[in-house]
Design goal:
40% of the residues lie in helices and 5% in strands. It is mainly α. The chain has a domain of 172 residues: Up-down Bundle (Four Helix Bundle (Hemerythrin (Met), subunit A)), CATH 1.20.120.450. Helix 2 runs antiparallel to helix 4. The longest helix is centred in the C-terminal third of the chain and has 29 residues. It is globular.
Length: 260
């Protein structure tokens, strides 16, 4: 167990915390102005007497209580209003997943067209610490390789070398491709994406409600780690990642274009 550490009247401004465990810590009279948090876990956190002026929050939001009000339903309703097709991304049966994937495929061409209006170097540029457009496409290749090819189809060699796992993944895990320095072209990634999109389309075309209600059993090294997973969870992960990452990527592409 780690020794208890106390920081009082200390200036830690400008510090960088990476893969640091602050769970169970308490913060009192702490200045967090201008902090940037990415891939942080705040489940069960309690903020009292907080000044949240100009706060921006992106992530998975559940049971978010603001001044005694659960704002989650309001956020979800507004997102559904902005993106009416979003309601199709919560499928309950095999036909629903097929429809969800049609929504995903139809959503990407305008985003790719926007990316093609920018010079190639801009597609490797990060905005406010988010993945570049190329990194986003690389990650979505990895998502299909992990959750569709490995988890559902049990492909013994599912990963492409250009796939990019999430930042929290162990960089020393040699069973999963992890070359963060690679700089593939947009054309390379689009070719890979077309292949992976076809993989998911074929998987869902053959999917039955019975299969969807079942489990998949993974063994051997790789990601997802060995264990039992509901098939529904695996496929929903692919749908969710595709939708959320495209929205972020398109937002950042527009920012890059307006800057230039």
């Amino acid at each position: 167990m780690n020794d208890f550490k106390e920081f009082s009247d200390a200036d830690l401004g400008g510090s960088q915390f990476t893969r640091v465990d602050l769970s169970g810590s308490s913060f009192e009279q702490v200045d967090l102005t201008g902090v940037r948090m990415r891939n942080v876990y705040l489940a069960g956190a309690r903020l009292r007497g907080a000044d949240l002026t100009d706060l921006e929050l992106d992530g998975m939001v559940r049971n978010l209580i603001v001044n005694g009000v659960d704002v989650t339903p309001f956020v979800e309703a507004e997102l559904d209003r902005r993106y009416p097709e979003r309601v199709k991304l919560r499928p309950t049966d095999a036909d629903g997943f097929r429809e969800a994937w049609r929504v995903i495929e139809a959503s990407w061409p305008p985003t790719v067209a926007l990316a093609q209006t920018l010079p190639p170097d801009a597609l490797h540029e990060r905005v406010d610490g988010e993945w570049s457009f190329i990194e986003t496409l690389r990650h979505l290749v990895f998502v299909v390789d992990a959750w569709a090819k490995r988890a559902v189809l049990h492909d013994p060699s599912p990963y492409d070398a250009l796939g990019l796992p999430h930042d929290e993944h162990d960089p020393n895990d040699h069973d999963v491709p992890n070359d963060r320095s690679a700089r593939p072209t947009l054309e390379q990634l689009l070719e890979l994406r077309n292949d992976r999109t076809a993989v998911v389309r074929k998987l869902l075309a053959d999917l039955t409600d019975e299969q969807l209600a079942g489990e998949t059993h993974l063994s051997g090294p790789g990601y997802p780690t060995p264990g039992r997973y509901p098939v529904r969870r695996c496929l929903q992960a692919v749908v969710n990642e595709e939708w959320e990452h495209r929205l972020i990527a398109e937002r950042d592409l527009r920012g890059l274009r307006s800057r230039r």
